[in-house]
């Protein structure tokens, strides 16, 4: 079983705030250097968890979709209908790589996803459920017309539990967890269950990290974890069940909102010459050129306008001057930028420039670290109090607790790990040796393995030295953070 607690930071798991998770940590394998995938947003990480591949492979590079032929403005990946719309131009594929739900179903195993989050995030975890592959439970499916695929599961849940709208915070969490405990576990065949709780993400976005509302949501989610563990124990299944508990990303409060329009003007660009997909403190830019020379001029000008700002952390461009990608590249084609390839975001039709914002170093009104500016296409304050998406420890560093017969007991694992590793680990636990995936199997306990290797890459440009910090372990490189 994989339990995802949306937006949970490791420093929130304390005896006072989350007594159930805190107790589980003491008796489980705790990976204390676990990483989200950059950009540290929900749907990018859901896609990586679903496929075991990096964003440049599964082709979900943001929480938004750039589809200029279908929409004049970016579309959210949070809605199933937008993913289905995109699939219509991608051989009816929502994800470019096979999901573990597809592979498990082909192996004759039973895969169940239950989530209280958006219909889009749910769909990315079981992208072919609409075609009969796996079981997907989410109250927002098909525009809210159904709560599950397949039909018999949809009807059973409606009759017994009614309908609770998805993605409405704690009320959605409580509904989904009740369905999990009282219907999924006792009645549905399941070899792997993914249980996604959308809190504390919803409360933290609205009220801020450390707010009374967010702390109440954290406590409620912790109580639901306790109920789930108790249910497994009562059913006699706990001792034989491997359970992985993690998050999709961390969180930080919004320090300021930066209007992109004056930056475009400073770069000599009109607003219709560039499209930005804004993921909080990280934005992905698509430039609309008239020629190759025009593209180069616009890309360089926009990079300079952003790169010379004190609140901009790192910039990424393709390593090659055109639209191609080069494996293992470090530096981007514009001086002062890193390669998009280094963070697995280079595709032929992907963004031309990705920019992350620099944390302020100041604490929020509730005394929490991790505050950061966000980029927007409008002026005025953000509608949210807190955010994620950035390349900093408070958003990159997330918890991972592993318990069950295939994991060590009461051990802290300091070797780096990431959400990229979850699919291959779950596959191995189900006797599927998925060597084609990008991660590594975390259930292999090898205390004699080589020590992690830390590396700092550096670029110089716009009068500033910028650094990208990574850690490599057993041939896998994890992006830690950026600095300048």
Characterize this entry briefly.
The protein is an alpha/beta fold and 484 residues long.
Describe it.
This protein has 484 residues and is α/β, with parallel strands linked by helices. It folds into two domains: 2-251 and 393-429, Alkaline Phosphatase, subunit A (3-Layer(aba) Sandwich); 254-387, Gyrase A, domain 2 (2-Layer Sandwich), CATH 3.30.1360. Helices cover 29% and strands 24% of the residues. It contains 15 helices and 25 strands. The protein has helices at residues 19-26, 42-51, 55-58, 80-87, 100-106, 119-125, 141-144, 151-161, 170-187, 201-207, 212-234, 260-266, 292-307, 393-396, 422-429, and strands at 2-5, 29-31, 34-35, 64-65, 75-76, 111-115, 135-140, 146-149, 192-197, 243-246, 252-259, 274-279, 282-287, 312-317, 338-339, 353-357, 372-376, 386-387, 397-398, 400-403, 411-413, 417-418, 453-461, 464-473, 476-483. The strands form six sheets. A nine-stranded mixed beta sheet has the order 8-7-6-9-1-10-20-2-21, sandwiched between helices. A five-stranded mixed beta sheet has the order 12-13-16-14-15, covered by helices on one side. Strands 19-3-22 form a three-stranded mixed beta sheet. Helix 2 runs parallel beside helix 6, helix 4 (80-87) packs across helix 6 (119-125) and helix 9 (170-187) runs parallel beside helix 11 (212-234). The longest helix has 23 residues, at 212-234. The model has no long low-confidence stretch (mean pLDDT 96).
């Amino acid at each position: 079983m994989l339990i995802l607690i949306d937006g949970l930071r490791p420093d929130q798991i304390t005896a006072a705030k989350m007594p159930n998770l805190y107790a589980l940590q003491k008796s489980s394998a705790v990976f204390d250097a676990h990483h989200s995938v950059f950009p540290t947003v929900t749907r990018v990480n859901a896609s990586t968890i679903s496929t075991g591949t990096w964003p440049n492979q599964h082709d979900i590079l943001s929480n938004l979709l750039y589809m200029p032929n279908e929409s004049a403005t970016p579309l959210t990946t949070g809605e199933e209908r937008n993913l289905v719309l995109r699939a219509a131009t991608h051989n009816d594929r929502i994800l470019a790589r096979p999901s573990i739900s597809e592979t498990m179903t082909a192996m004759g195993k039973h895969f169940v996803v239950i989530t209280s989050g958006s219909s889009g995030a749910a769909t990315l975890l079981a992208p072919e459920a609409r075609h009969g592959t796996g079981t997907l439970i989410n109250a927002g499916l098909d525009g809210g017309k159904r709560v599950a695929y397949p039909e018999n599961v949809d009807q059973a849940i409606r009759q017994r539990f009614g309908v609770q709208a998805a993605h409405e915070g704690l009320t959605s969490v409580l509904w989904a967890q009740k369905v999990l405990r009282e219907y999924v576990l006792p009645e549905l065949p399941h070899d792997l269950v993914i249980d996604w709780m959308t809190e504390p993400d919803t409360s933290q976005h609205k009220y801020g990290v450390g707010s009374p509302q967010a702390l109440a949501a954290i406590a409620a989610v912790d109580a639901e974890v306790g109920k789930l563990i108790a249910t497994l124990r009562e059913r006699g299944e706990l001792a034989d069940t491997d359970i992985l508990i993690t998050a999709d990303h961390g969180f930080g409060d919004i320090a300021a909102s930066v209007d992109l329009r004056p930056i475009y003007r400073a770069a000599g660009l009109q607003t219709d010459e560039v499209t930005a997909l804004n993921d909080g403190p990280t934005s992905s830019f698509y430039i609309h050129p008239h020629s190759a020379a025009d593209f180069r001029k616009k890309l360089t000008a926009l990079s300079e306008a952003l790169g010379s700002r004190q609140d901009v952390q790192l910039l990424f461009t393709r390593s090659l001057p055109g639209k191609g990608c080069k494996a293992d590249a470090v530096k981007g084609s514009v001086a002062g930028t890193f390669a998009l390839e280094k963070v697995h975001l280079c595709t032929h039709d992907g963004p031309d420039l990705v920019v992350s914002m620099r944390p302020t170093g100041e604490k929020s009104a509730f005394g929490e670290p991790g505050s950061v500016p966000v980029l927007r296409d409008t002026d005025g304050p953000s509608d949210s109090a807190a955010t994620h998406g950035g390349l900093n420890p408070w958003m990159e560093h997330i918890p991972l607790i592993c318990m069950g017969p295939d994991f060590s007991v009461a051990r802290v694992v300091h070797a780096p790990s990431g959400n990229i590793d979850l699919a291959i680990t779950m596959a191995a636990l189900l006797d599927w040796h998925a060597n084609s995936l990008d991660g590594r199997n975390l259930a292999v306990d090898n205390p004699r393995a080589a020590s992690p290797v830390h590396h700092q890459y550096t670029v110089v440009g716009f009068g500033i030295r910028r650094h990208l910090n990574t850690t490599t372990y057993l041939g896998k490189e994890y992006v830690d953070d950026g600095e300048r």
